[in-house]
Design goal:
The chain has 15 helices and no strands. It has about 325 residues and is an all-alpha fold. The protein is globular. Pfam families: DUF2157.
């Protein structure tokens, strides 16, 4: 038993939260040095799903001329059907609260079925165009399927695919790197509004889910997407110098978003939300300061300004560490 666990258990005893007998039992159990392989096995299952679906994609790409489109689509459809058959057969049915399969392998079978469904519909649209020029339908249909499976089978990985598909349907890429490097994002200012509206809708859905007690453990996923989408869209608009008349509005949007996620991160005790909220708020504050300072003449005090910069960044790092330590202390109490 490591020193940290020993101290934590001793603290529980000192606060009379556990009895002396319970303390001895906990100590004896930890001294056995038994550890679980559950996380490692699930990681290998997840990697197996990714490797299998990637292998399907490579197989299609390299043998598309020799196998034939109909044969590939038929094979995909059969595999998808088998996966969903076993999943529905062993599922407990839809429940508003958190549920799990008795066999964790089936959770990854649901994930494989949904990824293959996305591949099937995308390949079908690319080759035969059953939706014509309505390419959004090729994104919307697997998104709807993923939302259904995510809620029916209580699968967070599938829900992540569904939210990603929803963002793609409205023209967004939900990863920070893609958003920052997406030329269409800069060329079309309306994407900023779409991103913020989508993020707000995700927040509203979590509020509604809490009210009706519908899969409330999904809220962290929705809020994580909402935080990244709203914050990155606002920051992109803040640095867009072609939008000088509206940058202040996005500054207020980012400030309101940061305040909201500050409160939510404490309510959910989610350090991931808290850390990213601080990072995005810090970036936004510096951009706003830069845009304000560009209208001020520093020709007489520019040397003083340069000397103050190291102190400013060091102070920011110290403040960041202090905020994280205080947050960990609050959620531990």
């Amino acid at each position: 038993m490591n020193k940290f666990d020993d101290q934590a258990t001793k603290l529980l005893l000192d606060r009379n939260l556990i009895t002396e007998n319970q303390y001895q039992e906990i100590t004896s159990y930890r001294n056995l040095n038994i550890f679980s392989l559950n996380a490692e096995l699930k990681l290998f299952l997840y990697l197996s799903v990714l490797l299998f679906t990637s292998g399907i994609g490579i197989l299609i790409y390299k043998n598309i001329d020799s196998i034939g489109h109909i044969a590939i689509l038929s094979l995909l459809l059969i595999v998808i059907g088998v996966c969903f058959y076993y999943c529905f057969k062993n599922a407990k049915g839809f429940q508003k609260t958190e549920t799990t399969f008795e066999n964790p392998v089936l959770e990854y079978l649901v994930l494989a079925a949904n990824i293959l469904t996305c591949i099937f519909i995308g390949y079908l649209q690319f080759q035969y165009k059953p939706f014509g020029t309505h390419y959004g339908l090729a994104t919307l249909i697997p998104t709807v399927v993923s939302f259904f499976c995510g809620y029916y089978f209580d699968n967070k990985s599938v829900l992540t695919i569904a939210i990603t598909g929803l963002a793609a349907y409205v023209g967004l890429s939900v990863t920070p790197q893609d958003l920052l490097n997406n030329s269409n994002f800069y060329a079309d200012p309306t994407l900023s509004y779409s991103a913020i509206i989508l993020g707000a809708l995700l927040i509203l859905w979590t509020i509604y889910s809490n009210r009706i007690q519908l899969k409330t453990h999904f809220n962290l996923i929705y809020l994580t997407f909402a935080l990244h989408i709203i914050s990155i869209a606002s920051i992109n608009s803040l640095v867009d110098y072609y939008n000088d008349s509206l940058w202040l509005i996005f500054a207020f949007v980012l400030a309101g978003s940061s305040y909201y996620f500050y409160k939510v991160s404490h309510e959910l005790k989610a350090i991931s939300l808290y850390v990213f909220m601080i990072v995005y708020a810090y970036i936004g504050i510096n951009i706003v300061l830069f845009r304000v300072f560009e209208h001020i003449d520093f020709s007489d005090i520019w040397m003083l300004f340069i000397f103050m910069l190291p102190a400013y960044f060091i102070g920011s790092i110290v403040l960041f560490i202090k905020l994280i330590k205080n947050f960990n202390k609050e959620i531990a109490e």
